[in-house]
Write a structure and sequence with these properties.
This protein is α/β, with parallel strands linked by helices. Helices cover about 25% and strands about 15% of the residues. It has 6 helices and 7 strands. Strands 4-1-2-3-5 form a 5-stranded mixed β-sheet, covered by helices on one side.
Amino acid sequence: MGDRVGRSVPERLEVADVSTPIGTFQVVYRGSKVHLVDLLEKGAEQSRVPDGAAYRRAPFPRGSPPSQLAEYFRGERTTFELEVEPFGGTAFDRKVWETLWKVPAGVTITYGELARRSGHGGAARAVGGSMHRNPIPIIVPCHRVVGVGGTLTGYGLGLWRKRWLLDREGAWPLRSRSIEGPKGAGQRTIEQATAHDGADAPPTASPRARARKAPSA
């Protein structure tokens, strides 16, 4: 027993199901590290839960990955105070996911801009592949990645969920000529916000994410 003094007990791998308005998500995590988020829906691609993972039922410990995910869907948080440690992925994928992790709620970014900010300018198509392989959707927000001009493009969880998530966050980046239309004329992608001078600028939040200005007298 003496040789165990001072050693921390490793946190065990756990799995939990989180019910949300857009479906039930299964979260695989260890302590504050989240490894996997899967949509539990017939026909949806599922990842295999590692052997030995312990199933945890609600209520979840405060601050745990499933608890924070539930809070996000209840509108109680827009950011996640977690460590992201995805299962799998190439070095390219992980760099793209790391960059995407920094895009806040209420903001969208194009595939081309995400590629540039990841250090791989011109690799927009490859970035699309990284989005498809993202094992931690919602938390690593691939729903915030849009096409040129703010068009909605493919989303593994279904485009209707992508629209739902963006609307929930106050970002609706559809083209102005779309039959569904944008939520506000001032909405821009990060790429559009910085295109005037080619310089990097802070992400531009959507009108819903900003306080309304009082009308001038």
